[in-house]
Design a protein that fits this description.
With about 525 residues, the protein is mostly beta strands. The protein is built from six helices and 22 strands.
Length: about 525
């Protein structure tokens, strides 16, 4: 019936959702054709064809039922109780041989609301990354695509899941394509010429928020030169130019620079460097200024890395400091960064997937095999692959963003513990005319978050998991520019068969916002079948 489904109400969204399904089908067919081509050329040696050729295709279907006592996240006395049925077909594709290699995981969630007047709707989830070797050892193309649910405003309501009726959440789609050419200039230097294009697009948001909020188009061109490898003292040159366009405000930001660098390797464990050059930008008005900095990297063991980079800029200095340590059962990562951010993508924060991927990188060097291993373990433990401790916000102007993050994962034969905490500060660069943009309401936004998960394996086929999440945002503008949420979730996951998992869960969420505060309790059951 017209108007009952979001696809029919928003043709623009329908086109994007259809495009997602078409893209998944085309990638799957392309990978299959490539596998058949390799098999015809004598690349096979018996056994399972897809695994032998490096191609793995795993379709799946999920069905869940959720009862919530507050679908609309309303205050006490106005709660809207509802049953939510979710049908979630998905597919995972990995290919680690041939000229096209990569990983794709896509899921479409069809949400049907019972005992409620809310319309049914569709959500998409996509994580894809790939590399194509167009000309052997010379010309390559990197591509990344992402679809996720993100928070529109840091000061609006925050909810623990995308199935709830939260007008402050929207679907954001990002596509990045980066072709590049690598080569040698005789014995003098090596070079890389890289072009990058990115598009970010969001669905319709909440009341008063345009569907173009957070939409951007970005392009850049980068040329890098470096001296011959293996020298203790080496040199480098880098030049780039970038332009980003914000759809809602019509604002354009341009920047370019030319920087020279010197690096010194006094010992196999150390790398020291300095940089200097000129930079032009219009973040705070058209200006050309000097840029200089220093960097250091220390690798005392193959599992430990300490690195730091600092640069002086006229609009605000930048830095990037990382401490990373991996052990058999433990991985620890501490980061502190400050740089210009042109969007709201929170992918810089470590997720459960990234933590376990980092931990198993030494056990399984092959990225595609490690992807399957990590996803299988997360499913068995009942952990969300994409869980992060803060969801960011949509911005329509460039910001100077400082992020301090700590991430830890510890595993034992029966227990897995993951911890992610962050402290983020965003400051507007320039001005924006969009009154619904957080950065037009507060020039400085402070966000903090922490997520702690403990999973325990009761039996080889049964696991329990408890997850606590706390988020808080505040701004320096007038009025009550703050929002906070705490959520506690307990689940138990049982493997019913080699490819079948069942999960039972209980969730309680509390928002402490003065004007948008709410409490929500939900019980849910989910079954996933992989084929």
């Amino acid at each position: 019936m017209a108007g009952r489904h979001r696809l029919s109400r928003h043709p623009r969204n329908a086109r994007h959702q259809a495009a997602c399904l078409l893209a998944c089908g085309l990638i799957g067919m392309a990978a299959t054709v490539q596998a058949q081509t390799e098999a015809a050329s004598g690349d096979s040696s018996g056994g399972d064809g897809t695994k032998r050729l490096g191609l793995t295709v795993v379709p799946r279907i999920g069905l869940s039922e959720t009862w919530t006592d507050n679908l609309a996240l309303a205050p006490d006395g106005q709660r809207d109780r509802a049953l939510i049925t979710s049908v979630s077909p998905g597919i995972s594709i990995t290919n680690r041989t041939g000229w096209l290699r990569g990983v794709l995981d896509y899921q479409m969630d069809g949400l049907i609301y019972l005992k409620s007047d809310r319309s049914s709707r569709v959500q998409n989830q996509l994580q894809a990354r790939g590399n194509a070797e167009v000309v052997p050892s010379k010309v390559f193309v990197d591509a990344n695509a992402n679809i996720s649910q993100q928070t529109i405003s840091a000061f609006g309501q925050t909810s623990p899941g995308g199935e709830l009726d939260n007008p402050n959440r929207t679907e954001v789609r990002t596509l990045t394509v980066s072709p590049y050419w690598r080569g040698l200039l005789g014995t003098v230097a090596s070079f890389e010429l890289r072009a990058t294009g990115q598009m970010r697009d969001s669905s319709d948001g909440g009341t008063g928020v345009s569907s173009a909020s957070g939409d951007t188009k970005e392009g850049s061109l980068n040329l890098s030169l470096s001296g011959p490898q293996g020298r203790a003292l080496n040199w480098g040159l880098q030049a780039y130019t970038r332009r980003i366009h914000y759809e809602l405000t019509g604002l354009d930001n341009r920047s370019s620079s030319a920087v020279a660098s010197l690096s010194w390797v006094p010992d196999v464990d150390w790398v020291l460097g300095v940089t200097g050059g000129r930079e032009k930008s219009d973040y705070l008005g058209n200006e050309t200024s000097s840029v200089y900095g220093a960097n250091i990297k220390w690798t005392p063991t193959p599992r430990t890395t300490v690195s730091g980079d600092w640069q002086r800029h006229s609009y605000g200095n930048s830095h990037n400091a990382v401490l990373e340590h991996r052990m058999t059962q433990l991985v620890l990562r501490l980061t502190s960064t400050q740089a210009v951010s042109t969007g709201s993508d929170p992918s810089g924060q470590m997720t459960n997937y990234q933590l376990l991927d980092l931990q198993y990188s030494s056990l399984e060097p092959d990225a595609a095999k490690r992807d399957a291993l990590v996803r299988s373990m997360l499913a068995a433990l009942g952990l969300s692959p994409n869980a992060v401790s803060s969801t960011g916000f949509l911005a329509n102007t460039a910001t100077l963003q400082q992020r301090n993050e700590a991430a830890l994962a510890w595993t034992s034969p029966r227990m897995t513990l993951t911890l992610s905490a962050n402290d983020n500060k965003s400051r507007a660069l320039g001005t924006t005319t969009n009154a619904t943009d957080d950065l037009a309401l507060a020039s400085n936004i402070h966000q903090r978050g922490v997520t702690l998960s403990v999973a325990y394996r009761f039996t080889p086929l049964s696991t329990g998991n408890v997850t606590y999440t706390r988020q808080h945002s505040s701004g320096d503008g007038s009025g009550n520019l703050s929002s906070g949420m705490s959520s506690l979730t307990a689940t138990t996951t049982t493997r019913l068969g080699p490819r079948t998992d069942a999960t039972l869960g209980l969730r309680h969420t509390r928002s402490d916002d003065q004007s948008l505060g709410y409490r929500e309790t939900a019980v849910y059951a989910q079954m996933t079948q992989r084929f």
